[in-house]
């Protein structure tokens, strides 16, 4: 580009003279100015170096480059006039520097755009790019289209848009098509993918568009939603379709007073702080300025990871909240007592639990010790330490459980209900509550990333049963609702979150296959790309999940939170059960512990025989 400028600048000066006098070679003016033709390229290149014009990568230049060139030629034009004055060049028309500035801007800027166009033409000619359509001809779609011009994998061949005023118009050099003509475009333009570039639309509108795109053999990717963009995502970063896009749940704005009641200027403690739900509660607590945040976690790596993340988040948001990171188990009574009293905890979110159904089925005593006895130790310690609010993170699997994990969580709820009665009858002001919800998206062991990995590897996608259904909610939404529900508690409340409609896992798998650009291989389409394989229900797994044991449910001031009135155990029966479980755990009596759970948790009907590894026959083991 230096050589091009060395030619373009003298040429621009000659053009300025020619334009001024309307003749090709006005020699009586050109010959006196000959020295300017020699000095001009040197001055121009030095100025362009100084303003950084040569640091710009040609294939990425945009409108900003025009302003850089304009500033450079303006400086050069003034220097040209000053040089003519100092060197006493006569005759020298005053309009020549003005003409030169305009023409040099065209020549210098034009050569760069010409080179960029040549580069892009070469990419399209010699590199086999995948033709794509961009759904959304707004500002985000235009930015994405411009970014794809330098992409070696994709090229934009047009836009899709539902706005009838835009259809058949030209946007960013590409035609806007009616989405109803997508099938024709796929055939005529060999379209392989559709990129959804509408970050501001509602979740429901996004879901409706994705449903329409499912029937076409194209890979669908999306730009982040406006919420994700505000959280720091790049507006042009493409990602795979997420399950939350398919669910189409519009988040309900939080009630500020409910957030502040439990967090603002409070000492807040989160157990299981490094887990999926616990870590998100930590993030949201930090953003709402507690007096101190206590993180309690038994996994060293998980605690380290969330501590590092919160440190970065604090710097980003400019928040200076003291954080205490503690290693420990909720089953360690002495440590729990010491922590609650030392830091004078006011709000406690108990998210520490073993939650994977098959793993707990194979490790029953550990599940009971952590989920039941750990909750008892923590909740009783909270009563002694006069913690203001104690919120248990529960699960829909606690409702008429068919597995040990669900039974332990229901028994943990019963412990809190009993302590809530004790608290109301004593001088303690600890308010106990529990929040029950279904599966959260993106948690450890979640089915969605597993499906995506299986699809990328060519399948098959494994589903346990053709009719299995689940409720889903995003982790941020669940954590936000947990915090608000805890603030509404009066004591012993069982809160149930509105999870929306249940999702059939088979349908979810099929939708993910189609939206990733593949077809489902089954008896109706034997030439499909990805098959779905049914592996059978795992130990303790239910076909359908429920959120309520009874029908006694009332609304709250939040539209996504309901209050359930569930049955309780008598204090004597509960205490006897806990003593039996503790004895069984210490004496390694798996069958006794399981039978005790079956007897004490109403509705617990194990779906399988005991499969604990300490009591069942071991799988075949091969020794070298």
Automatic annotation (TrEMBL):
It holds the Pfam family CoA_binding_3. The chain crosses the membrane at residues 34-53, 65-84. The keyword Magnesium does not apply. Residues 268-565 form the Polysaccharide biosynthesis protein CapD-like domain. Keywords: Membrane, Transmembrane, Transmembrane helix. PANTHER family: POLYSACCHARIDE BIOSYNTHESIS PROTEIN EPSC-RELATED, UDP-N-ACETYLGLUCOSAMINE 4,6-DEHYDRATASE. Belongs to the polysaccharide synthase family. This is Polysaccharide biosynthesis protein. It comes from Nitrincola tibetensis.
């Amino acid at each position: 580009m230096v050589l091009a400028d060395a030619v373009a600048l003298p040429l621009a000066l000659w053009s300025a003279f020619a334009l001024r006098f309307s003749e090709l070679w006005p020699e009586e003016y050109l010959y006196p100015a000959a020295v300017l033709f020699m000095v001009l390229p040197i001055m121009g290149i030095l100025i362009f170096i100084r303003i950084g014009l040569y640091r710009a990568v040609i294939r990425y230049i945009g409108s900003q480059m025009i302003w850089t060139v304009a500033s450079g030629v303006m400086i050069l034009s003034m220097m040209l006039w000053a040089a003519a004055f100092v060197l006493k060049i006569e005759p020298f028309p005053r309009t020549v520097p003005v003409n030169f500035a305009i023409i040099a801007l065209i020549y210098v800027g034009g050569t760069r755009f010409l080179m960029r166009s040549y580069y892009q033409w070469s990419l399209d000619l010699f590199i086999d790019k995948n033709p794509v359509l961009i759904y959304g001809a707004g500002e985000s779609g235009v930015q994405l289209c411009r970014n794809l011009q330098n992409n070696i994998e994709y090229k934009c061949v047009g836009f899709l848009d539902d706005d009838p005023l835009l259809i058949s118009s030209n946007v960013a050099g590409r035609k806007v098509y009616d989405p109803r003509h997508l099938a024709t475009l796929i055939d005529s333009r060999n379209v392989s993918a559709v990129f959804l570039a509408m970050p501001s639309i509602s979740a429901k509108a996004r879901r409706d568009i994705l449903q329409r795109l499912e029937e076409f053999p194209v890979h669908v990717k999306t730009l982040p939603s406006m919420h994700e963009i505000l959280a720091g995502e790049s507006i042009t970063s493409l990602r795979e379709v997420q399950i939350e896009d398919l669910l189409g749940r519009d988040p309900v704005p939080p009630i500020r007073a409910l957030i502040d009641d439990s967090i603002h200027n409070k000492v807040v403690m989160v157990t299981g702080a490094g887990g999926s739900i616990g870590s998100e509660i930590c993030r949201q607590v930090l953003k709402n300025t507690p007096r101190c945040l206590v993180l309690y976690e038994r996994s060293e790596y998980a605690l380290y990871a969330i501590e590092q993340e919160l440190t970065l988040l604090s710097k980003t948001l400019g928040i200076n909240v003291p954080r205490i990171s503690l290693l420990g188990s909720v089953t360690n009574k002495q440590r729990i007592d010491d922590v609650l009293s030392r830091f004078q905890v006011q709000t406690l979110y108990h998210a520490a639990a073993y939650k994977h159904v098959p793993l707990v089925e194979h490790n029953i005593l550990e599940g009971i010790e952590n989920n039941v006895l750990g909750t008892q130790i923590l909740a009783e310690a909270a009563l002694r330490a006069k913690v203001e609010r104690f919120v248990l993170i529960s699960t829909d699997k606690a409702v008429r459980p068919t597995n040990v994990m669900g039974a332990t969580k229901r028994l943990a709820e019963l412990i809190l209900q009993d302590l809530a009665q004790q608290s109301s009858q004593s001088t303690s002001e600890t308010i106990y509550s529990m929040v029950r919800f279904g599966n959260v998206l993106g948690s450890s062991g979640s089915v969605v990333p597993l499906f995506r990995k299986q699809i990328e590897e060519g399948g098959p996608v494994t589903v346990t049963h053709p009719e299995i259904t689940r409720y889903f909610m995003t982790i941020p939404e669940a954590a936000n609702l947990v915090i608000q529900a805890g603030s509404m508690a009066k004591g012993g409340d069982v809160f149930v979150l509105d999870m929306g409609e249940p999702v059939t896992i088979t349908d979810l798998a099929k939708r993910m296959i189609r939206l990733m650009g593949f077809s489902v291989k089954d008896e109706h389409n034997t030439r499909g790309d990805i098959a779905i394989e049914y592996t059978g229900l795992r130990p303790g797994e239910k076909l359908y999940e429920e959120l309520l044991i009874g029908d006694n449910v009332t609304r709250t001031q939040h539209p996504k939170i309901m209050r359930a009135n569930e049955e309780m155990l008598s204090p004597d029966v509960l205490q006897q059960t806990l003593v039996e479980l503790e004895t069984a755990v210490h004496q390694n009596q798996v069958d006794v512990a399981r039978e005790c759970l079956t007897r004490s948790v109403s509705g617990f009907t194990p779906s399988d025989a005991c499969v604990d590894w300490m009591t069942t026959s071991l799988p075949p083991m091969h020794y070298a």
